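User: Can you help me understand a structure? I only have the sequence.
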Amino acid sequence: MLRELLVTNLVIVERAALSPGEGLTAITGETGAGKSLLLDALDLVAGGRASAELVGPRGEACEITADFAVETARAALVQQACGIAASDGCFILRRRIRNDGRGQAWINDTPVTVTALRAAAGQLIEIHAQDRARRLAEPAEQLAAIDAHGGLTAQAEGYAAAHRRVLDLQGETTRLAEGDRGSLRELEFLRFQRREFDALAPKAGEFPELEARHRLLSEAESWRGLCEEAGAALTDDDRSAARVVGRLARRLA
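Assistant: Let's start by predicting it. Here is the structure, written out as tokens:
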């Protein structure tokens, strides 16, 4: 019997807790409230196919926990299926899916593979969904069914994990290559600076002389500006000295 289902950050569900108890439990609500997501959560914790799109916006992972109370005979079947013994007559299945598509699974706080999680859930959960048959038209479901029929589920999961590892390594290779290109650009810039520095041919003890020349050039620039102002005052204005003298000369002529 499912005693409790806890769902955290699954698509639009920030946090939900369901304790159905014995007998029939009906879940009602408006369209879009997340009723179907509770079934999706059960499917995930039962080892269903996961993807990064299931992770909601409130964290880097979503997590589903299902707590089952079982009788002794059923507990033996679950243990035979997954290799994990019941704890106080209970099996707690937990699954976490990260936003990079990777995931983790536990049974009674013991890390397990998704295959083991699916084997245990097969003795605890049976899901009948309205659109279950239509999913058989999806290529992913067909591949999963073929893998399961051929007993290749573990190999397929291993291949998927290896493929993710290859993608990670390719990304790391790209980052390292970009880092190398950045280092080469920095090295070329340093070489350019070295060439410029060598072209200056600095000599020991010439810094005081360079400072004196710098002050002289700075003062020369100031004097140049003053001379330009004086020249403008002498010639460029209507009241400049040159024009005043010219007017006086014409009047005295």
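Now, to help you interpret it: The radius of gyration is 40 Å. The chain has a mean pLDDT of 84. Let me know which part you'd like to focus on.
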